[in-house]
């Protein structure tokens, strides 16, 4: 895994988020404030532009640029939270990048978001897709599967995690204001986290 | 949905350009709204901010006796740390800066990041969380900051104008939040420029109880009722959380799409409710102050006043959105 793969990951994420922005905004309209799609579309297209304008030399730089851009440009909760995932990943990632190294850095990134958002698994947030993805990566490393299969498993785990937020009552974020009325809706943050993992699986396929 | 905009992408900047053109007392730079005259030596600076779409909050409250700077984000999206850092540095007159933050996950995260990153400025912050519709428990993000934000900004602003030190301004700001409660009811949803359609469907026959200020659905949906009944529901919720007593500051706030006439109808019912509980409307405000774009509906906010707070409320203020005594 080299710098180009990570740049491609963010380009693909930007493409997926742009394509799915209305769905993300509709999910957010049901239990939040109807801006998740447009905010992430703006944020990830800025990331793609930043990476294209000044191409980074190392994988860690790609992640640092992505993290800083999201924190500086998105606002809301998703900007700092996604920004922290990538910023922490950038700090943790060692060269050359192996699957084990990527999985470990990703886990630290997810922990950073959990800590910042004070959210845990089952609170109906992006964590519900990120943590299963991180666990899938760790299992893939343990079982010695290849990069492509590992990322496919992580993408599936994230998608399943996002769907599994539907019956949950939100305990964090704006959806928590709705109490029981948040039940029955997929969490938009978990849905966008699943897109992020789907993009990763696509670029190594 | 028809909107008076050029593009959804440019709506925040276009509106800020309009504010700058309309109000020479303001100076707008890099998405921060400042007082044109700049910081005053020895005065605590007040910075607030939040998503756009709540106008006149916050930018309309920049001026003498209230905020020194406001950081508007995208519609319903908190500002980014860079804006808050710029604002904090620019308004510091050597006495430190108070951040007034509405309790939403995004606002809290971005203000916290900014406070950590800004160096060389003494920063304190106060969290506004007045909305009784949200249970303050481990199972929510905590109560939302809504109408009482105006109370906090006005009263803390008056105290800062008098030259009080940062710790005292922060303490009184927190006290105002502690003494304030709000509850909102929506007759319609609102339409963000990006989505172009109402955030939620609300039939003609129903209203949403316990809404916030972002067009998010509320705690419950009930059949439409008279202004008296709806005002009663809102005031019972407030009174049930903080029993009304003594002198009150009472605001009936429009959500952006409700005629002032109807807000006065509501105010009459609110005032009758207050009298019924043996309390007194000592100060009042009726109008669109903390809005949710084009939403129809109202929120009611109360603050339990004492003499010092009443004096600070009465102190001169000169901002685009609130102005008296000067």
Task: Summarize the entry for a quick read.
The complex is a heterodimer of chains A (about 200) and B (about 325). Chain A has 9 helices and no strands.
Number of helices of chain A: 9
What is the overall silhouette of chain B?
globular
Which structural class best describes the helix and strand composition of chain B? alpha/beta
Q: What level of helicity do the residues of chain A show? A: over 70%
Largest sheet of chain B: 6 strands, mixed
Domain DhaL (chain A): 4-202
Protein name (chain A): Dihydroxyacetone kinase, C-terminal domain
Keywords (chain A): Kinase, Transferase
InterPro entries (chain A): DhaK_L_YcgS (IPR012737), DhaL_dom (IPR004007), DhaL_dom_sf (IPR036117), Dihydroxyacetone_Kinase (IPR050861)
Structure description:
Chain A: Residues 4-202 form the DhaL domain. Chain A: This is Dihydroxyacetone kinase, C-terminal domain. Chain A: One of its GO terms (cellular component) is cytosol. Chain A: GO terms for molecular function: glycerone kinase activity. Chain A: Keywords: Kinase, Transferase. Chain B: It comes from Nonomuraea jiangxiensis. The complex is a heterodimer of chains A (205) and B (326). Chain A has 205 residues and is mainly alpha-helical. Chain A has one domain: DhaL domain (Serine Threonine Protein Phosphatase 5, Tetratricopeptide repeat), CATH 1.25.40. Chain A has nine helices and no strands. Chain A has helices spanning 3-19, 21-31, 36-53, 59-73, 78-92, 99-117, 127-143, 147-163, 188-204. In chain A, helix 5 (78-92) packs antiparallel against helix 6 and helix 7 (127-143) packs parallel to helix 9 (188-204). The two termini of chain A are 12 Å apart. Chain B is of the alpha/beta class and 326 residues long. Chain B has two domains: 12-178, 3-Layer(aba) Sandwich (Rossmann fold); 180-304, Hypothetical Protein Tm841, Chain: A,domain 3, CATH 3.30.1180. Helices cover 32% and strands 24% of the residues of chain B. Chain B contains eight helices and 14 strands. Chain B has helices at residues 11-22, 81-91, 105-117, 148-161, 166-178, 227-241, 260-276, 307-314, and strands spanning 26-29, 32-35, 45-52, 69-75, 97-102, 123-128, 180-186, 206-209, 220-223, 247-254, 280-287, 297-304, 317-318, 323-324. In chain B, the strands form three sheets. A six-stranded mixed sheet of chain B has the order 1-2-4-3-5-6, with helices on both faces. A six-stranded mixed sheet of chain B has the order 9-8-7-12-10-11. In chain B, strand 5, helix 3 (105-117) and strand 6 form a beta-alpha-beta unit. In chain B, helix 6 (227-241) packs across helix 7 (260-276). The longest helix of chain B has 17 residues, at 260-276. Chains A and B meet through helix 2, helix 3, helix 4 and helix 5 of A and strand 4 and helix 3 of B.
